[in-house]
Design brief:
Shape: rod-shaped
Largest sheet: 30 strands, mixed
Distance between the termini: 92 Å
Strand content: over 45%
Number of helices: 12
Structural class: alpha+beta
Helix content: 10-25%
Radius of gyration: 39 Å
Number of strands: 30
């Protein structure tokens, strides 16, 4: 195709098109140069759409007549509060001087080179968890000075009225080519506080170093970091240091749903990318407990995912409660007496939109009273209201507890499932000088409740405990076997061989029924019956024995086990009140019919059934 010839044949058409384009550019140029007052309405509409709020502009004037750039003065800019706030303005700019290059504007691009603001007020307001005036404001765009080469803010004022967290402050601020400076005072949960933020100049798109300091009597923090762009607090790296009297008070600042604890101090490296957080080299001290590790938090489709690993050189579970929480627990113990099962909350209402996996390794468990538990490790998985600890491994003074614990709380009352085994343990760790031998156990329970204690108190399932190949106090074994004659002459330190101790309980509705309860030694065989109420932890057991030795003087007086799991009471069902009664019972036992010694129990078969 002969292109030059084509242009020659249609040159009038091309002249017309070119002339029209030039005329349009000239009209746009003239409007942008001299018709700024007519742009106030379209500017208000554009800003209102951008911010999602009503925006008004008091006046828009050009104050120079340059050819390639325009100096504009914009006065009385107001961004309204959302409707639920009941009126007022969220942002007020008293006066702003803007320098804009005209040519980019002709192509729909506003790239200011200079901005001077005199009188900028920003009023942040939160009424409750659903109503905060910064939610969705401005479309969530990135920070950054863009093409700005110069920015000055004079007479700035930032206020916060957060009624959800009882957090307020008023902070004057200013910015110029030397950087941003903000400092003010307020209160946090009724405690006086101070706030300070410093940063580099708010121009360009280069990384922006900053420092943030917050101080109060209950929560303190310092953040030294570098944002990807000026004021881009959605994308930054920082070193964080925080401390306070309670982790719950620190949570008033960071809003992560943290519980009340003993005094806290932490350091960590942070990376924040809008909805995601990466916490590295976390060093957390709670009371006398120490934890370290890495955690990531990501938000997707309305859900939060938390993954990480935590290692503790020492953990006291009391450090995970505030002083108020410990006082309430002490008062409850005083009112209902000591309990074996913990009153730990297992409801997950505040975690219904949280998922994730945490590997934990607590190398040393700290207790104020002696405990057989030494260490704990495992993996916690939370998935749509189901919290699972699997594997779960607890190191005991002797032996290990292994298995799984699960809380299912997707609706209604939480449901607790325990499937645990104890192996390589010793009886003496539980019974002291009364008995020794190998100990094994199996626990399989399911119950509903808002605490561990409440769920076990109405649970169903089985509990099996087996002790074998050890020794027991001989006098106690003879008494339990109703061989009173020999028991009277036994030394307190003498031992009898323990063939087996079998305790299997079938549970229904929190009532554990013995099926069977057996102590088999080389001198006696004792069987038990009755129940344990796990809701009240009250014992109701009766022990009846048979001697294994020939020529036993048998006094069949059952032993009653009552009281509580933490404070059991063991007494004979009836005690002779006079010496004559004692001799009468012995005489009846000697003159009575001869009873064959009790046979050995099937320890292997009963043990297998108890641990099934």
């Amino acid at each position: 195709m002969d292109v030059p010839a084509f242009f020659r044949r249609h040159r009038r058409v091309w002249y017309a098109v070119g002339g029209t384009i030039l005329a349009l550019l000239l009209i746009i140029f003239l409007i942008l140069s001299y018709g700024w007052a007519y742009l106030r309405g379209p500017l208000e509409q554009s800003l209102s759409r951008q911010f999602g709020r009503a925006v008004t502009v008091g006046a828009l004037d050009r104050i120079d007549h340059g050819f390639l750039q325009a100096d504009l003065r914009i006065r009385d800019i107001r961004v309204a509060q959302p409707e639920w706030a009941g009126g007022g303005d969220m942002i007020v700019i008293r006066s702003a001087l803007v320098r804009l290059p005209i040519i980019p504007l002709m192509f729909g691009q506003a790239r200011p080179h200079s901005l001077e603001v005199d009188g900028l007020t920003i009023a942040l307001l939160r009424q409750d968890p659903l109503h905060a005036n910064w939610k969705g404001f401005g479309g969530g765009g990135k920070g950054g000075g863009g093409s700005l080469q110069h920015l000055t803010i004079r007479n700035g004022l930032l206020t916060l009225d957060d009624r959800k967290r009882n957090h307020r402050f008023t902070a004057p601020f200013m910015a110029d080519d030397q950087g941003l400076r903000l400092a003010g005072r307020g209160s946090l949960a009724g405690n006086p506080s101070t706030i300070a933020l410093t940063g580099a100049a708010l121009t360009g798109n280069k990384p922006w170093p900053f420092r943030f300091d917050y101080r109060s009597a209950i929560a303190n923090g310092t953040l030294i970091g570098r944002a990807d762009h000026p004021l881009d607090l959605g994308h930054f790296d920082a070193r964080a240091t925080a401390w306070g009297d309670d982790l719950r008070h620190l949570d008033l600042l960071i809003e992560a749903g943290l519980p009340g604890t003993q005094p806290v101090r932490l350091t960590a490296n942070l990376r924040h990318d809008r909805a995601d957080w990466a916490v590295r080299k976390l060093d957390l001290r709670l009371g006398r407990s120490a934890l370290a590790g890495d955690v990531t938090v990501a938000k997707r489709d309305g859900r939060t995912r938390v993954d990480g690993n935590i290692v503790s050189t020492g953990l006291d579970f009391d450090d995970l409660a505030s002083n108020e929480g410990l006082a309430r627990a002490a008062a409850k113990r005083k009112a209902i007496g000591p309990r074996i099962f913990p009153d730990t909350a297992i409801h997950l209402e505040h975690m219904q939109r949280t998922d994730g996996t945490i590997d934990f390794d607590i190398k040393r468990l700290l207790f104020k009273q002696p405990s057989t538990f030494r260490a704990l490790r495992g993996t916690l998985t939370l998935d749509h209201g189901v919290l699972t600890a699997k594997p779960l491994v607890a190191t005991l003074g002797q032996g290990r507890l292994t298995g799984m614990a699960r809380v299912r709380h997707q609706s209604g009352t939480p449901r607790l499932t325990l499937d645990l085994r104890v192996g390589n343990a010793r009886l003496e760790a539980m019974l002291g000088d009364l008995a020794s031998g190998a100990l094994a156990a199996r626990i399989h329970l399911e119950g509903s409740g808002r605490t561990v204690r409440a769920a076990i108190g109405q649970a169903s399932g089985t509990i099996g405990v087996v002790g074998r190949n050890g020794a027991v106090n001989r006098r106690a074994a003879l008494l339990l076997g109703s061989d009173a004659g020999r028991a009277l002459f036994e030394d307190k330190s003498d031992k009898a061989a323990l063939r087996c101790l079998i305790a299997r309980f079938d549970m229904k509705g929190g009532i554990a029924t013995a099926a069977p309860l057996l102590l088999d030694t080389d001198v006696s065989r004792t069987q038990g019956k009755g129940t344990i109420n796990l809701a009240t932890e009250r014992l109701g057991l009766t022990l009846s024995g048979q001697p294994k030795l020939k020529h036993a003087v048998r006094l069949p007086i059952p032993i009653i086990v009552s009281g509580s799991l933490s404070e059991p009471k063991v007494v004979p069902q009836s005690v002779p009140k006079t010496v004559g009664t004692v001799f009468k019972l012995i005489g009846n036992a000697i003159a009575g019919p001869h009873v064959e010694p009790a046979p050995d129990a099937d320890c292997a078969g009963l043990a297998a059934q108890a641990l099934r």
